[in-house]
């Protein structure tokens, strides 16, 4: 593994809207979300990995791009997961007998540095950029596409190129989990539903409102939350005062402040929030007030069967799951992307390079990741869906719940909410 931290100064301050949308995959805050899960069921997964020959030949070179050094949200859990996968797969024979070589490129929350990452991927003949998250994919995807390098498996696509380019293969599904939160609130027979959206994330509002419309409902009120306030008491009162349920699309750090005010308010309303943000970190100290709150996510909880090998890899890498949250969109999304990359690459006859991988991914009709996400068909774009979201192949959600401050699975089956995002019932 090579860690590429480009030594360039930041040429811009954090953009307010983007910085506040860090909830999209969760900043890598501390928490013991996966601590117990990682020690369970690991022996079985490890036993399956009998001794195999060490990988040989030219490495299969890939890159993961994310933010590691910046004044705003950083995603060390993404980098750590990419590195852990490299070690894990190489200890088990590599990919098609060849070693995997991962370069983590830190774009430093700077579009110019992100573009440099893209040029490096081209110059070093990377097969793909895998499992990344950046607000600046517009500086990357058009550059790598000229060399047939795929933007493969991003958990949380948010830019036009990620959602429209034929070289982009998202596994995650923003903003569907927000639509899923609305669905679950209605399924739970909530009568008066309010919404809270952190400022900078207003893009989530239209599909959420469409979902409410599909049920013949509308939000009682929508509260736009300032991202850096020290106290959210006024906003909590506004959001919860006349509601029995509140859909809260808030990033992890503000959620900590929010949940403190939520607890102090004495409200009995139930919250519905995003995976990796409404979590054990943000619930700590407010366990009673958040008990029963519902988490809408793209991926099943890390304690479930699909993530057995991920738990082994985290343990083998000696990663502190009490320090970083791997039960998150960034952590699990990166692992899923690498598993998917391996499945497709190993099915290629002949040389594995950027062009052959792009061709193979483009022809993939049934990508089965054993329950990490639904089976995906990369040949069928969402042409009748949300405008500008045609590459959103996965439109399903799954739910967890907070119980005594711990995240536990609530549902086991994926639920497609694509029609709800369009305002269609069913």
What CATH calls the topology of the largest domain is: Rossmann fold
* Mean of residue pLDDT values: 89
Q: In the CATH hierarchy, what is the class of the largest domain?
A: Alpha Beta
Unreliable runs: 5-21, 28-35
Coarse shape:
globular
Q: What is the percent of helical residues?
A: 25-40%
Give the tally of β-strands: 14
First-residue to last-residue Cα separation: 46 Å
Q: What's the number of helices? A: 17
Strand content: 15-25%
Could you give me the name of the CATH homologous superfamily of the largest domain? Response regulator
Count of the separate structural domains: 2
CATH architecture of the largest domain: 3-Layer(aba) Sandwich
What oligomeric arrangement do these chains adopt?
Answer: single chain
Largest sheet at a glance?
Answer: 8 strands, mixed
Which structural category do the helix and sheet elements fall into?
Answer: alpha/beta
Give me the Rg, rounded: 21 Å
Helix-strand layout with pairing:
Layout (H helix, E strand, L loop, with lengths): L1 E4 L10 H5 L14 H4 L3 H6 L12 E7 L9 H15 L9 E7 L4 H13 L4 E3 L10 H5 L4 E3 L7 H5 L3 E2 L6 H12 L5 E6 L6 H10 L7 E4 L7 H8 L4 E5 L2 H14 L4 E5 L5 H4 L3 H4 L3 E4 L10 H9 L12 H18 L7 H9 L33 E8 L2 E4 L5 E2 L1 H4 L5
């Amino acid at each position: 593994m090579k860690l590429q931290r480009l030594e360039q100064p930041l040429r811009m301050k954090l953009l307010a809207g983007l910085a506040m949308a860090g909830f999209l995959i969760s900043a890598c805050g501390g928490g013991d979300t996966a601590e117990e899960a990682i020690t369970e069921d690991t022996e079985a997964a490890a036993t399956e990995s009998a001794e195999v020959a060490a990988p040989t030949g030219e490495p299969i070179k890939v890159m993961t791009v994310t933010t590691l050094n910046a004044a705003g949200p950083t995603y060390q859990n993404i980098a750590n997961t990419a590195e852990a996968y490299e070690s894990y797969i190489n200890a088990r024979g590599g990919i098609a007998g060849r070693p995997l070589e991962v370069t983590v490129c830190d774009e430093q929350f700077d579009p110019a540095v992100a573009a440099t990452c893209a040029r490096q991927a081209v110059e070093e003949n990377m097969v793909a950029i895998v499992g990344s998250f950046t607000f600046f994919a517009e500086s990357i995807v058009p550059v790598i596409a000229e060399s047939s390098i795929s933007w493969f498996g991003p958990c949380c696509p948010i830019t036009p190129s990620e959602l429209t380019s034929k070289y982009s293969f998202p596994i995650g599904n923003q903003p569907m989990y927000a639509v899923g939160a609305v669905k679950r609130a209605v399924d739970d027979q909530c009568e008066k539903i309010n919404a809270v959206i952190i400022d900078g994330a207003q893009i989530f509002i239209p599909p959420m409102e469409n979902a409410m419309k599909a049920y013949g409902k509308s939000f009682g009120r929508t509260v736009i939350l300032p991202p850096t306030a020290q106290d959210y008491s006024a906003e909590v009162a506004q959001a919860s005062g006349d509601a029995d349920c509140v859909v809260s699309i808030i990033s992890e750090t503000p959620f900590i402040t929010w949940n403190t005010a939520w607890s102090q308010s004495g409200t009995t309303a139930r919250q519905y929030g995003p995976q990796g943000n409404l979590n054990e970190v943000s619930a700590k100290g407010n366990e009673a007030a958040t008990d029963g709150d519902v988490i809408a996510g793209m991926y099943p909880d890390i304690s479930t069967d699909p993530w057995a090998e991920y738990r082994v890899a985290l343990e083998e890498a000696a990663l502190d799951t009490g320090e970083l949250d791997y039960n998150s969109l960034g952590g699990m999304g990166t692992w899923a992307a690498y598993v998917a990359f391996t499945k497709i690459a190993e099915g290629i006859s002949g040389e594995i390079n950027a062009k052959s991988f792009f061709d193979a991914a483009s022809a993939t009709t049934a990508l089965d990741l054993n329950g990490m996400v639904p089976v995906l068909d990369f040949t069928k774009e969402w042409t009748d869906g949300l405008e500008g979201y045609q590459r959103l192949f996965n439109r399903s959600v799954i739910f967890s719940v907070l119980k005594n401050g711990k995240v536990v699975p609530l549902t086991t089956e994926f639920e497609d909410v694509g029609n709800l995002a369009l305002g269609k019932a069913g």
